[in-house]
Amino acid sequence: MASIALHNIRKSYGTLSVIHGVDVDIEDGEFIVLVGPSGCGKSTLLRMIAGLETISDGRLSIGGRMVNDLPSKERDIAMVFQSYALYPHLTVAENMGFSLKLRGTSKDEIGRRVQSAAKILALEPYLDRHPRHLSGGQRQRVAMGRAIVRDPEVFLFDEPLSNLDAKLRVAMRAEIKELHQRLKITTVYVTHDQTEAMTMADRIVVMRDGIVEQIGTPLEIYDHPATTFVAGFIGMPAMNLLQGRIQADAPSIFRTNSGVAIPLSRHPGTAGPGEELIYGIRPEQFLIADQGTPAKIVVVEPTGAETQVVAQIGEENVNMLFRERIAVRPGDTIRFTLRAAGEHLFSAATGRRLPEVGARSRRFP
Ligand SMILES: Nc1ncnc2c1ncn2[C@@H]1O[C@H](COP(=O)(O)OP(=O)(O)OP(=O)(O)O)[C@@H](O)[C@H]1O
Ligand SMILES: [Mg+2]
Known about the structure:
Blueprint: E1 4-13, E2 16-26, E3 31-35, H1 42-50, E4 57-62, E5 65-66, E6 77-80, H2 92-102, H3 107-120, H4 136-148, E7 154-158, H5 166-183, E8 186-191, H6 194-200, E9 203-208, E10 211-216, H7 218-223, H8 228-233, E11 240-247, E12 250-256, E13 261-263, E14 277-281, E15 286-302, E16 307-313, E17 316-322, E18 333-338, E19 343-347
Parallel strand pairs: 3-8, 3-9, 6-7, 7-8
Antiparallel strand pairs: 1-2, 1-4, 4-5, 9-10, 11-12, 11-14, 12-13, 14-19, 15-16, 15-18, 16-17
The chain binds adenosine-5'-triphosphate and magnesium ion.
């Protein structure tokens, strides 16, 4: 097991710079998820940790030792990719033991480790099968088994579940998390799926265009997104972001650009007079009420457990999410209020969250 420290890590391909100075300190035994849109540099960063990609600048340490120039095979890391790339002509047991065989590990030791990994992953009944006779989820587990038998200091995963169907993905997500709780091996897991990030991570690193936007626990990031980008990226349906400003003669009212007045449940701290702001509100913060702000229903999507609604407020469409069943149809007008203290305010100029004041000024590390 080992900690991992990335200090001012940069990567360029020729003159093209793709990672612009990333700092992340990963604790021993931590489960870190790198999340962000396609092309933001997640795989590049992971491959630099693995030693599969050179580091253009900065300092990478694993277990307190600088490893910038240490070859991949000397880093004691096991990596699981999206494509499992199992050897089709080898059995499950042979696939799992292959890297140990290359290293010259004794037959007995290989057998022992493969058995132990197969037990952890519930693969014992399949050890003599070939990969083509396995389901996608079982193949995925063999790929993890191959990593586990190496007993590495660090696990790296790059979108390991993207090839699986939705149901299996949820099941494997739980399995990987459970495995981590059992083995406590430092893990860096890459995904572009914010639900995977939220459910699996001890801490999430949100990336965008080669920089880190925010690092925090899933709930810190959900409750206190540092930027409008993070606010819009984490959460499904996405947070509503409405542009406008604090009403000059009524500091507890946010006035959207299309003229709708939304009452604020806290004083908006450091916003300057007339400053252009972005008001963020999550879909689940809306409550239907007899009195309140009117909204016109555009789309109703019942999922069974909850009802998603798109409604028009002024000129803007907003997402609302109700846990209870509601009898509304497109074209209806509802009135809504908001749960207390559910709002987020950002500077429109910088996209950064306004410092919070008063009772909710808790800062995270
Ligand atoms: N060998 C390369 N040469 C030039 N540019 C590259 C190379 N590899 C990656 N890039 C660029 O680096 C950027 C980051 O790529 P990377 O694969 O790390 O993204 P990602 O976040 O993993 O995306 P995805 O979610 O699509 O896998 C992209 O703009 C990509 O085009
Ligand atoms: Mg990638």
